[in-house]
Amino acid sequence: MKIRRLVVLASILVVCLVLLTLQTRGYGTHTGDAVALVTTPVQTAVAAIPRAAFGVWSLYLDWKGVRAENRRLREEIRRLRVEALWVAEATEENGRLRRLLALRNRLPVATLPGEVIAREWGGWVRSLTVNRGRGDDVKRLTAVISPDGLVGRIVEVRLGASIVQVLTDPSSTVGAHVVRTRTPGIVEGEPRGTIRFKYMARDGAGLAVGDVIVTSGLGGVFPRGVPIGRVRAIDDRGSALFHYALLTPVVDFGRVDEVLFVTGERMPDLAGFFPTDG
Amino acid sequence: MRALLALTVFGGGVAQATLAPALRIGDVAPDLPLIVVVLLALRRGPEFGCLAGFAAGLLQDAAGGGLIGVQALTKAMIGFAIGALGGGLRVTQPLVQVPGLALLTVVEGLVRFALLKLFHFPAPFGELMVYVVIPQALYNGFLGAALVLALAWVEDYRRHAS
């Protein structure tokens, strides 16, 4: 056993000394090559192990980083989405207000802007609550318009708010006429939330789908020439005294947010101040 | 024995390649293969210590770019010597481990220097001793002692667990 140990030691000593001698005698390159044959694969493997381990570690760190970044980005996306909604809402509101302001500026009649703060859409009553009331000197039966056309009239004035009866309210009636044929009639609200134009049969021979109905101005409540709706269908009742034209309102009552109260005493013809070409 | 030998060489090489740069204090890095060879020679005897020292040293020589065979020879001799003396050394005492490993490192440095001189390789003795060998010897001493204590603790833990 002892001899074997000594043989091992002696062999190693001899190998090392031979290696060193060869190198100092000018065979360094060959010696280096010979040793490299053995050591290079081992060194490659030795180098590969930590590289792989560090690779896995760095992959894990990357993954952790990506997860954290993902969480942060999701949070940011959520925040930006909310902000985008705010911006879209503000832009839309800005556009609406600009249209309202433009209308107000070009109308030859005094108006008061108001914001819709509530809607009653039950069927029995169809009305809007606007944030202008007795304090703003608002009067009952004041006409209410939007940049698209007629909304309705004020039926109740409270402290700080007014109730606007919209055209689709079943008890709403407005004197109107057809722009193209000047056929007079009455626009009535219906319980199902639509409006119709009631006219005398003898006057309505030339009525056609697409005709625009505007206020007639008779009665002094509404100014003349404010668009109400467009003929969608004609209900011809044969020999009956009155015929009906079903209308599509020019104002989307469910979405109108800002309105103008027509407060002026004078009621001029407003026909040229609203778009009537669709 | 072959598997353990390969594991030693690989373990020492991997440790030297990965841990030594990380454990560097200033310009001083520990000689991890030397520590591994010494620890294993104490447990496995002179033959194993000699072969492990030779293989680990040869790898270090090949990686270093100097004279091939210097560290192989010094580490083989140290592995053999420690393996042969292992039974008589009280290496469980930290007071023995730290100076023991430091001394071994210095001895290895001296033998290395002697070999380099013998084979006409330029090496300034004073600077090598002051800036390389002695700081590394101290580092090896403390690190080796810490490793011995850690291994002893692991063995105790395993014994209690079983």
Helix content of chain A: 25-40%
Low-confidence parts of chain B, pLDDT < 50 over ≥5 residues? Answer: none
Structural class of chain B: mainly alpha
The dominant shape of chain A is rod-shaped
Largest sheet of chain B: none
Distance between the termini of chain B: 25 Å
**Class by SSE composition of chain A:** alpha+beta
Average pLDDT number of chain A: 86
Radius of gyration of chain B: 15 Å
| Pair with the biggest interface | A-B, 30 and 32 residues
Q: SSE order of chain B in H/E notation?
A: HHHHHH
**What fraction of residues of chain B sit in β-strands?**
under 5%
Give me the side-by-side strand order of the main sheet of chain A: 1-2-5-4-3-12
- What is the N-to-C succession of helices and strands of chain A? HEEEEEEEEEEEE
Count of separate DSSP helical elements of chain A: 1
Largest sheet of chain A: 6 strands, antiparallel, barrel
Give the integer mean of the pLDDT values of chain B.
80
* Total E-strand runs of chain A: 12
Helix content of chain B: over 70%
Quote the distance from N terminus to C terminus of chain A.
111 Å
Low-confidence residue ranges of chain A:
none
